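Write out this protein's structure.
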Amino acid sequence: MTVSEATRARVRAAAGERCGYCRVPARHVYAQMQIDHILPQSKGGRDDESNLWLSCPRCNGFKRDQTQGLDPVTGRRLRLFNPRRQVWERHFRMNDDGTIIGRTARGRATIEALHMNYTPSVMIRRNLLRAGWQPSP
C-alpha cells in the first residue's frame, strides 16, 4: 500500500478518528487503527482517497478482501456497508449494551461478515458507552 502520510491524515480526520464499521474511537483501541481499502486491492481497489477509510484492526481483519456478506434474515448476498459513501445510522444502530443492530439488509450482512458483535468487542463498546467515551446510541 502506497498511501501517503498526508492522505492517511485526511482519511483519519474525515472518519472522525473512529472505525467506519464498529465506530470504536481510535483513542480506545490498543492496536493502531488501519487504513481500509473499501474495495480491496485484490479486487481492483486503488490507493486513492475515495477508496480509503479508517478501520479498527478487528473489523479490518475480518473484512480482509470481502466485498459482500450474507444477510442472515433474507439469505441474500449483498455488498458490504461503505463508510465513505453511506450513513452509518441508516444501516446500523447501537444498543445501550454495546451490540450493533442492522437496520437494513446491508447492515445485517456487514455485521455478520465483520463479526461486529463478537463478545469482546461488545464488552468494549458497552464499557465505552458507560464511561461516556463513545457517543450514546
